[in-house]
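subagent[fold] <- orchestrator: predict structure for attached chain, return tokens only, no commentary.
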Amino acid sequence: MMHRLINFFGDEKYLKIRWRLLLLVLALVLLADFLVTRHPTAHFWDAIPGWGAFFGFISCAVIIFVSKFIGKKGGIMKDEDYYD
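subagent[fold] -> orchestrator:
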């Protein structure tokens, strides 16, 4: 079971299926946000359907890009044979 899961996330032949699965999950989260009852909010953007999903996706992407930038340009990441 674990071997099949590792192969699913590691092999290139499953790339198209993984993208479709990701888009399906994102669409379901967005759809679920439309079905939730809205309570009075303090900020206007909290009343926008799909705002939480959009904000979460953008925040995650920004964290990934900033950490890669800090790792490569900031000198934190070293080459694989750095200590040889």
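orchestrator: received. Logging for downstream: The chain has three helices and no strands. The longest helix spans residues 51-73.
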